[in-house]
């Protein structure tokens, strides 16, 4: 949890700096009179924030500062832009295109003279985006449409999005909240926190943990770099990690969870057609609703299961197979490196 809090603090500082540092505000371009429905924005060294808001005048704000922290006048910035960068803002019909990239690459460019070019764009809520930066964070808020975004140098902060949402980062964490429909997010450089979202949700990280809160729909959560914590999830959850344990509370629906990096705890308040749990590095602890029918298949070094008159099947050390209360939901749990314990709530 401390890692997530630290990520949010750092992300907040990044976006505030890009949005509110008036000293680095280079220009503002009004979009009044343009019925904008699509934004394409690319920058090679800076953050990009796109906000859909009826309460804000549609506009583009460009923030520019020296990458080495040196103070620059607007004339100094313009000279560097003209000499070393392709910088263009084009508004045609319903489309906005903003591009800021260096003319020179590799050893041909003195990065001490480089510029950090960040963008904050205010548009109507009904707007799609195509965002790319290699040197900063990306923020999207209150948008409805297709959102595509990628960064190799910062985190993703996403809130109040509806539509097809697809993004990735190799240099930071991801935070998404209050969003729905189709969500597909990936990072190789940090953790992921998803909160108050619904729909088809796919989350993948190879560099951190996963925090899942108040999700509904079909959720696929994968991590090879940390543990997975989930609470209040309704629908169908697939969760796996090779980098930590899994803790799931207040789960309703179908569940398929596996870890090779720790123990697994799953508390289900309502079961669907199946529950499948696996651990090769620790114990499995399951809490299930009482007075329901189950088809049980439990394997582990030891099996902890209360005795019931309604159980029919095989019960021995390390193995339980059979039907409870005439059968029903399939419960499969296999712990190759620990015990399996079942309780009823």
TrEMBL record:
The organism's place on the tree of life at top rank: Bacteria
Family matches, as InterPro entries: Toastrack_DUF4097
DUF4097 domain span: 62-342
Pfam families in the cross-refs: DUF4097 (PF13349)
Tagged with keyword Signal: yes
Signal sequence region: 1-19
Keyword tags: Signal
Cross-referenced PANTHER family: PROTEIN FAM185A, PTHR34094
Protein name from the UniProt record: DUF4097 domain-containing protein
Annotated organism of origin: Mucilaginibacter rubeus
Classification lineage: Bacteria, Pseudomonadati, Bacteroidota, Sphingobacteriia, Sphingobacteriales
């Amino acid at each position: 949890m401390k890692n997530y809090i630290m990520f949010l603090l750092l992300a907040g500082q990044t976006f505030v700096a890009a949005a509110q540092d008036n000293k680095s505000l280079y220009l503002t371009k009004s979009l009044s009179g343009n019925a904008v429905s699509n934004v394409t924005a690319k920058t090679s060294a800076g953050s990009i924030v796109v906000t859909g808001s009826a309460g804000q005048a549609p506009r583009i704000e460009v923030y520019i500062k020296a990458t080495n922290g040196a103070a620059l006048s607007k004339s100094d910035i313009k000279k560097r832009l003209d000499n070393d960068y392709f910088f263009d803002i084009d508004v045609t019909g319903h489309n906005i295109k903003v591009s800021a990239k260096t003319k020179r690459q590799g050893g041909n460019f003195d990065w001490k003279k480089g510029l950090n070019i960040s963008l904050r764009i205010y548009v109507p809520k009904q707007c799609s985006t195509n965002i790319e930066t290699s040197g900063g964070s990306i923020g999207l808020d209150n948008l409805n449409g297709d959102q595509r975004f990628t960064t190799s140098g910062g985190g993703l902060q996403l809130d109040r999005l509806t539509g097809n949402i697809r993004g990735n980062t190799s240099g930071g964490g991801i935070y998404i909240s209050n969003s729905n429909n189709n969500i597909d997010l990936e990072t190789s450089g940090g953790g992921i926190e998803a909160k108050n979202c619904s729909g088809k949700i796919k989350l993948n990280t190879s560099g951190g943990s996963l925090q899942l809160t108040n999700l509904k729909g079909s959720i696929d959560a994968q991590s090879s770099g940390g543990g997975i914590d989930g609470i209040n999830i309704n629908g169908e959850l697939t969760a796996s990690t090779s980098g930590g344990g899994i803790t799931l509370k207040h789960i309703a629906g179908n569940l398929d969870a596996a870890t090779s990096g720790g123990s697994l705890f799953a508390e289900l308040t309502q079961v669907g057609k199946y529950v499948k749990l696996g651990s090769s590095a620790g114990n499995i602890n399951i809490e299930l609703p009482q007075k329901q029918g189950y088809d049980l298949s439990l394997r582990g070094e030891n099996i902890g299961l209360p005795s019931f008159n309604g159980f029919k099947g095989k019960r021995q050390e390390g193995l339980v197979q059979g039907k409870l209360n005439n059968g029903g939901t399939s419960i499969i749990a296999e712990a190759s490196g620990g015990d399996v314990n079942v309780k009823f709530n």
